[in-house]
Amino acid sequence: MVKLSLLLLVIAAALALASPLGRELVVHERLNSVPHGFTAHGPAPQDKVLHLRLALVGKNPTGIEDELMEISTPGNPRYQQFLSKEEVEAFAAPTQETLTAVNAYLAEHGVTAKPASPAGDWLSIDVPVAKANELFGAQFTTFTHAASGSTSVRTLEYSIPANLQGHLDFVHPTIMFSSPLSKPPVITISRPNVAPQGNLTSDAVPASCTPYITPACLQALYGIPAAPASGTTNNTLAVSGFIGQYANRLDLSTFLSYARPDMSSGTSFTDASVDGGTNPQGKSNAGVEANLDTQYTVGVATGVPVSFISVGGDSTDGVFGFLDIVNYLGSLASVPTTFTTSYGADEYELTAGIAAKLCDAYAQLGARGTSIFFSSGDGGVSGSQSQSCTTFVPTFPSGCPYLTSVGGTSGVPETAWAYSSGGFSNIFSRPTYQSSAVSTYLTQLNTTYRGLYNASSRAYPDVAAQGDNVLIAYQGGFALVAGTSCSSPIFASFIALINDQLITAGKPPLGFLNPLLYAAPARVFNNITTGSNPGCGTSGFPAAAGWNPVTGLGTPNFAAFRTYVGLP
Does the keyword Protease feature in the UniProt annotation (predicted)? Predict the structure, then answer.
């Protein structure tokens, strides 16, 4: 009888493993402890619906990156031969085997997935906590973020069936704990005594730029033309908006009337929406960040069509809406030639998997011909905002090698803005296009700060622009703001004007810029050699000749840049 009982147990166990609901689960991702700043409050309600995304392994995960580098490197036979939407998606799309395996497992549990990206490399499922725990062998728990008071449901560990390894990259958001984007990235705001200053034209440097920066100052500093672009719809500049920051058209009109009187005060931007985003126009709705971003694109990239993309509160991507907006852009038949974002986070807030997946999405967009800009952050070497730290804190997405990170400068003549974030990623390796420039800097730095940063990784920022005492119109008056939030739309506007001239001359736009930037002769940039970016109890990295991790290669010179890219 005992032997028979044992045999029956063995058979039952074998049948359980062979049955759909008895698959062997293996731990896929795990955290050893609750991240700093978060507190666990016990199991999440079993009926609470979770919006989960499944990242699938693509057919050719590294292929798009190789393609991007070929079409973005001057001198390569394929330089600027951008890919179509279908060609890009062919690299990112999962195989039919992957789709079948993942969907079969979900179907066994009565779950149906929906595509959540243009290439189908993301799937989304809406399941109650109880079902999510069952699917992934997890214990989803309610957590509170102390600083913001926000709650989220996450798990410290989850598993997937062994046969899905190599098909299912990861499940998100599960072990990623990030603080919400809760305030505009600009770090200072004051009300200046704005009075008419006479003729604010390109000869305004330095006198009228001493109290604050305007488009006229930028025209003088960087040689940016005031003449309007052709306005071709083949060249568009997209601006992202988050956390209820709305761009006010009346404030834009006030700004143009004062700072760009040579333009029509009725010049504006178009609206686009992601995740239910809106752009209400009440005076109290005006957002300092959104106003800054639209006023310094419309007001600097004269005549270039500008689109303000508002990302609403319906986002369930678990990464600030960054994934949703890049997927939205990737879904368009015609992508913007320039895209700027003034938001970011500390790199440690993201898992390596989601950071890499987002970086891949930026590579896909770049391969279609978009120049992507992100502000580097406003915490010096301590991260996106100033904070206590013992080692230097890299920011995201500046560490992604497939976009252009923009640091900040201050004053006339320009020096490194003290809060300009810069440093080295802990996730992404150093791309070959910046090896020489970064190695030269590190040789000069020698052993200073050794052990506080990852000396072998992707370095940032790549370039810089003004980021201090920048004038905007805000809620019927004027304000001064500071941050690399200013720098990114300024540099994006510079490139948008270059793109306009290239397209008018029958040439393609620039697309992903970094290989071009790092190969440029010194005259293309105004090199910044003074200042540093303090943080973590240190003076931070010092600015220096050549590339440096405060202002990158420097600020742009329009005449030299247009000659460099082959414009007469």
Answer: yes
Q: Are 68 and 370 in contact (CB under 8 A)?
A: no
Say whether 293 is catalytic: yes
Check whether domain 188-564 has CATH 3.30.420.10, yes or no: no
Q: What is the pLDDT of residues 242-292, one digit of tens each?
A: 999 999 999 999 999 999 999 999 999 999 999 999 999 999 999 999 999
Cα torsion at 347, 429, 82, 87 (round to 10°)?
-80
DSSP state of 317: S
Kindly name the residue from 293, 346, 360, 462 that is annotated as catalytic.
293
Residue 81, SS3 per DSSP: coil
> How far apart, in whole angstroms, are the C-alpha atoms of residue 195 and residue 180?
38
Choose the catalytic residue: 289, 324, 346, 378: 289
Pairing mode of beta strands 463-466, 457-460: unpaired
Residue with tokens 């790092």: 518
CA dist., res. 465 & res. 160, Å (int): 46
For 62, 157, 292, 344, the CA distances from 467, given in Å and listed in that order, are 35, 41, 11, 16
| Spans of all domains in the chain | 15-58+93-172, 188-564
Report whether 483 contacts 375 (CB < 8 A): yes
The verdict on whether 134 is a catalytic residue reads no
CA dist., res. 19 & res. 403, Å (int): 46
Cis peptide before 509 (omega within 30 of 0): no
Q: How many helices (H) and strands (E) does the chain have?
A: 14, 26
Cβ-proximal residues to 522 (8 Å cutoff; 6+ apart), any chain = none
Instruction: Evaluate the CA torsion angle 30, 35, 52, 127 in order and state its sign.
Output: positive
485 included as an active-site residue: yes
How far is the C-alpha of 435 from the C-alpha of 430, rounded, in Å? 7
Closest among 315, 311, 304 to 329, alpha carbons compared: 311
From the candidates 315, 375, 386, 485, which is the catalytic residue?
A: 485
